[in-house]
Design a protein that fits this description.
Blueprint lengths: L7 H9 L8 H11 L18 H17 L3 H17 L24 H13 L25
Length: about 150
């Protein structure tokens, strides 16, 4: 059976039924765009009706609006880049093929134990509370059929 896609008007009505009553026009337009032209309707599939968990919905929409405003090309470019990278991974292509790591022209070569190293280390440790880390899994890949790095 073909997949039925709601018309833009129906999509807007479906999204409106989920959004907080005090949702800004900017957030409303972004939610409709995400659920339609950007193909991200799955973001809203588990949302309860308007009036429930509205603070969480507003927080997510604010984060998405920040990404839209700050990512070069907005969310459309971000999603396009993600799809391209995932496509390369599926085809077994290395997205970094041909790249060579190098120290930037304005980079600094720090010597462990030097006062400059200690100053940069102190500054870095102060920022560490704002970091997130992804821990890749290894293994032989018997179950997955893939012996490379696995990110969860």
């Amino acid at each position: 059976f073909p997949t039925l896609r709601p018309s833009p008007l129906l999509r807007r009505c479906m999204v409106d039924a989920l959004l907080p009553a005090d949702c800004s026009d900017e957030h409303r337009r972004l939610a409709v765009r995400l659920s339609g032209e950007l193909g991200q309707a799955h973001l809203f599939e588990a949302w309860p009706p308007a009036g429930q968990r509205d603070a969480d919905k507003t927080q997510l929409l604010a984060q998405l609006a920040t990404l839209e405003a700050n990512y070069p090309g907005g969310l459309a470019a971000y999603i396009g880049s993600a799809r391209a990278l995932l496509g390369q991974a599926v085809r077994g292509e290395n997205a970094l093929e041909g790249w060579t790591p190098s120290v930037p022209d304005d980079g600094v070569d720090l010597q462990p134990g030097s006062p400059e190293f200690a100053a940069f280390e102190e500054r870095g440790l102060a920022e560490a509370a704002h970091l997130a880390f992804a821990v890749p899994a290894g293994g032989l890949g018997e179950r997955l059929g893939f012996s490379g790095i696995k990110l969860a």
